[in-house]
# Entry
Amino acid sequence: MSRPTTPSWKRTLGGVLLAALLTTGCESPSVVPTADGRQNLHTARIEGTLVVQSKARGNAVVFLYDVARPPPPAGTGRPIAFTVIPAEQLFGPALTTDTLGPFTAPFTLSLVPAGTYLLRGFIDADTCRSGAQPCRPSDFNPWYGVTSEPNAGDVGGGAVDPTTGATLALTVTEDADGNPLPLTNVSVSFSDTARVPLDRPAFQVSVLVGGDHVVTTGGGTKVLRLTPQTIRGGAVDQAPPGFLVSYVDANKDGVPDDANKDGIPDVWPRVVVRKLANVPGLLEDNDLDRNGILDPDGIDYPRAGSGRDGQPDLVVLAAGLVMDPILSALTDESGNPRMTPVVMPELQVAVRPLALDARDAAAPAPLEGLPQGRYTVVLIQSTGQTWRVPNELAPAFAPAAGLTPVESQAFTLEVP
Amino acid sequence: MKAFKTLERAGVLALCLCASQALADARLEARRHFRSGMSLIAQKQYDEGIAELEQAYAIKPHPNVLFNIARAYQDAGRVPEALDTYRRYVASSPADAPTVEATIAALEEKVKAAEAVAETDKSALPMPPPPASVQSQQQLGALLERLEKAIERAESMPTGGASAATSSTYIPSVLPGVSETAGADDGAVPYEERVVTASRRAQSSLEAPNATTVITAEDIRLSGATSLPELLRRVPGADVMSLGVGSANVSLRGFNQRIANKVLVLVDGRTEYQDFLGLTLWSSIPIGLDEIERIEVIRGPGSALYGANAMLGVINIITQAPGSGPRARFNVSGGTGNSVAGSFQSHGNSGALRYRAAVAYTQADKWSRDYASGRPDIVLRDPDPDIGMRGARGTLATTYTFAEGRTVGLSGGVHRYATEIYPLGLLRNYFMDGLNAYVKGDVELGPLKLKTFWNHISGHAGPQYEAIGQRSLGTDISSNLFNAELLFARAFQLAGEHQLNVGVEGRLKRVAWDYLGPLREELHAAAFVQDEWRLAEPLRLVASYRVDRHPLLDNGTPGLAHSPRISALYIPIEGHAFRISAASAFREPTFLESYTRLLVPVQGVNGASAMTTGNTSLRPERLTAFELGYRGEFAELGMDWDVALYQNRVKDLIVLSAFERLPANESYDPATGNYLVGRSRFQNEDSIYTARGVEAGITLAPVDGLGLKASAAVQNVSSDLEDKEDCGPCSQAPQLKLYGGITYRTKVDLEFGVDAAFTSSTTWIEREPNATDPTILEPHANALGAYTIVNARVGYTAVKNTVDVALIGSQLGAAHSQHPFGNRIERRVYATLTVTP
# Structure
């Protein structure tokens, strides 16, 4: 059967030309971020090597801090991110030995925006790996306050100047187009010289002077007695022998510092009595997203004599350690300052019925009256370890967290 | 690469040297001519009527049209033409060939007798004088003629199938090739729309107990669509959401989502719904668009016949019957976005053995990429980050007919492909480098049918983009599904005519996937029965019931899911059917929902992960549906339409829970060295969702060459517990969808088509990490604007029946996204060349 031939080559030719024209664009697909928030961030990374010289064995945890918000003891900042290098990867075949190393392993902190940071970390020691009895397994858990810091036997570390030992400020820079550039070859060192000597300063509170846990404007100064508390149950294993007390000597000149020039030398530990949010739970006031930074929108309390400043406040009660027993412990037989830390069996904390806005920690501003609500007592040790009550061990919170309740950890100061 | 592109462009140039056959809506057009012809024949305008029928046959050949032409010639007394047409009819091997052959023999005898009489007349005595009255003579002649015709018709009228006849149609007794999978368009009534999916047997779409939409091979060709989901936009009530070139989610009547899991997709009755994931991976289906005979979409619950996952509807893709197409056909296409496709298809037969074989290759770039290469923070895991989909496939389908009603079919296919998947929860854009394969065997022994198949999918998948230094979620999958089904169909009389369908089914699923832990295996079983009872014309009742045994449905132990359906059909006049139905349907928990244990890294916090876990105690998602429908046609104008009102009540939706903090002693995963920020678990929602809507569609072929389609769907989804702004299924369902399309073909060699689909704005509630603290994972509302998709096609037949070319513009509307996390969809243009040597 014969088939008809093409009736019009002109139309065909037109089609050919049009198709050729339209198919000349064979370039790669364009880059168009979607509504996924992550795709619209411009970040880089920090990567490098862990160097461990230690007999301790365990996972290495590396934290990323904003340089403006350093962790205790230098500040109260919380980590922006962290990474874990499993012990198996870090120590390899030496995992079951107690050799000193050095051991190395790569690490990466991902999706880091441009900025300046600090890197700190620790080896979460697991003495059970060596068969020691009694032993303590790795017990770090970042999600709960009572498990989120190093304990005795853990080995501290960080990105430090190898000659001075000073913590390095690491900067993720940007190129000319404003795109962050990766920061590589960063070294994070861990050494047995930074082994944590004591467990965290877990304490219980009793009211020594001032009656009960209620703070009132006219109630006078309240004195709290803090005593170490051993807590063993579930994921928490704390057995502090006492509180590590020492003079502050930031410039290491062998002379106690006196930052506020009040004639009383500065000492560790430090104590903060901070207001909790008026919601169930343990959230701090004006930090409902629990990122350690005051929320942009929050409660602005009136200041004494000057009204509101238009910003959410960091409300604390005027509190401090009762210095006499501490100074006594930190003075040697010759009456000279004892510059090495001393373990004290108890501390006393004086709490005045005065509320301050500590947004500017260097110049806290008195508030008008006492903001109503619950207040937490926080103790910060020179090792950077902290403890606070109330915490997740309080019977009201412990079951939900899978922790063993401890009645004493529910203590709260209250302003009615 | 440059050389390849040069070759590619040269190929595109070469392919445009020629051009395409053309039809608008051929069925409606042919039907219009047919009905017009039959009407003229009834008025004894035989010549005009036969001409109309011949035109209908030319547009779309149908054996029954030949039968009717022959009858018309016979009525007109033009016996030689009648004989010739009867012979053409018998040549199509109809089942009633013996009866028709007897008619042919009788007519031949008559011709011979007439010739003999004519010879005798030459020597006979003069005729007696006529009756006294000329009028009486004429009356007598007419009476004798009518009597003779009545006798002849009684002798030659086919014996069965009369119940489906229309007043203006002659129907042969049994038609060839009307099976559940193919040939249903050759129904008893010529050019009547036929469906097989609604009742698991061939029937007129007017008689279907559900709202149905049929997309024919012509629709597919004229649309210029390159993927199945694109085609489904024309289905009223269909929610089609393309996230990537090779990744789309399709739902019906709302409840669309990433991993749309409430619509059962079948290819010739074989499931393409990936049970383990709850997803139809459209671009992995080893069937090309040019192998499809038609697509039947049942809009509404189908669990009463198809069991699990046929919750909101069934999409049955029916391929061309082996041996029913050309011996060879080549198709190549190329276009923007590095789109290249080529296929070869062949049909043939050797005695009782018929076959269809096809091979094809397809590739296309993504519309857009989420991330650029060389970033300091993101690593591209996708082996080819530009490719949206790429695949090479081959299929072979054979049938062997031993005798009438006794056939064996064996088919198989394999598809090696790379595509995208957009999983749920915190997961984003995945690549999949996979292999799909299937083998299907069918045995038909009269009323008994045995259907078996094996489905296999395997491959490597993982996020396309991951943060440098983050633990990778790359994974390997292997899934095998074995299915056997025995069906029995029988008609009988008991207080009216009954059409009984009964079936039993068994299915074994084995899935090896590290997201699920160890190898998972499930054994499922089911049985169903359906009876269509023609109680008293014009009323029909259809009752269906299916029970499915699932190994986990009873709180983690084997349990049953029951799916009843009752429908009533009222067909007061020919071409107009009213239906009312109530049904229950369900979706079973997927392997992912039952067994998964997946730790998803928290973005930017490499030491932390969020855990997603399965739940073996899930209840199935449940649907209770009510529907009122009206389907009508006006064949003389080439018009049909369908209207449906529905209410779907959905409960026990399976969703991911909010993240719950884990107990301290369960918060560390030693295998990954990650601390678990919390756990999200698959669970049944307490909310009950009610979707109400109305859908209307109309198709017209008013004049030769012109085809029009239009549809609209309005829906509203509400929750009994959640406010509108917190209710994902409520805000994610577009409230208005519109579709309109027009095709026009010239009588010579050109055809034009353009269609547009509008989808109203939505708000998608998706889980995302908090901007300042990524360890806080919370729902986030993403507004998505309305969008309109416009496609156009120009076809040209360069050499009649041999060479066609077409130019296709896809997504010609404004650039847009169809999901907040999907590609930005932009215009593409393709040229195609089809050669049928």
Notes: The longest strand of chain A covers residues 183-195. Chain A has two domains: 39-195, 203-415. Chain A touches chain B through 69 residues (CB under 8 Å). The helical segments of chain A are 9-22, 87-91, 323-329, 398-401.
